[in-house]
């Protein structure tokens, strides 16, 4: 199956700093990548959808200036949490799909646990 | 809006069968997926349905009724390692990207 690599696995940072999370598709070209966040014992909440070479589409309530997404190539998308605050502490997971056909499942990265002090 | 409902938690004994129900109301439908997620890890794909009926895959089976907006995941011969959260996800067709919307997950606890 397809492999999605996500780094870092965990990060601890001070309030006010920015954190960048990388998501790479290792053996396929990911035309679309999705970024989710998950609080403990809660569902995966879609934050944004990014297509290679175009601007990301953010879900309602997600601040695009705070969560910067760049999908500069078919194998790499990055999420930057700018000026992180403790309430941004969460599990962030990227996922990728090769296309929009009905049977195209999501391939997930291993997730990034962000803790903001 | 989108709404995907599944029970919060289920407990079953090793070797037993458990059925996790999922009902959905979404603006479009382009497939229903089940994922398994262990704590602190990313979800892993279990099964997929786009047409009505039952899909069997070893110890796991999934059923779909599109007219009822209903699916279930059946886990047979439960093992301790099956203790995990099981996520129901619907891919909608609002746009060509086919966004996935997830339910809150059902925590399955397998006891000896």
Task: Write structural notes for this entry.
The complex is a heterodimer of chains A (117) and B (112). With 117 residues, chain A is mainly β. Helices cover 0% and strands 50% of the residues of chain A. Chain A has strands at 4-7, 10-13, 19-25, 32-38, 45-51, 57-58, 67-73, 76-81, 90-97, 107-108, 112-116. In chain A, strands 2, 4, 5, 6, 9, 10 and 11 form a 7-stranded mixed β-sheet that branches. Chain A has a 4-stranded antiparallel β-sheet with strand order 1-3-8-7, with no helix packed on it. In chain A, a hairpin with a 2-residue loop joins β7 and β8 (76-81). Chain A starts with a strand and ends with a strand. By secondary structure, chain B is mostly beta strands. Chain B contains no helices and 11 strands. In chain B, strands 2, 4, 5, 9, 10 and 11 form a 6-stranded mixed β-sheet that branches. Chain B has a 5-stranded antiparallel β-sheet with strand order 1-3-8-7-6, with no helix packed on it. In chain B, a hairpin with a 2-residue loop joins β6 and β7 (60-65). Chain B is globular. The model of chain B has no long low-confidence stretch (mean pLDDT 91). Chain A binds chain B through residues 1, 6, 32, 34, 36, 41-46, 49, 51, 57, 91, 93, 95, 97, 100, 102-111, 113, and chain B through 30-31, 33, 40-45, 48, 50, 87, 89, 91, 96-105, 107.
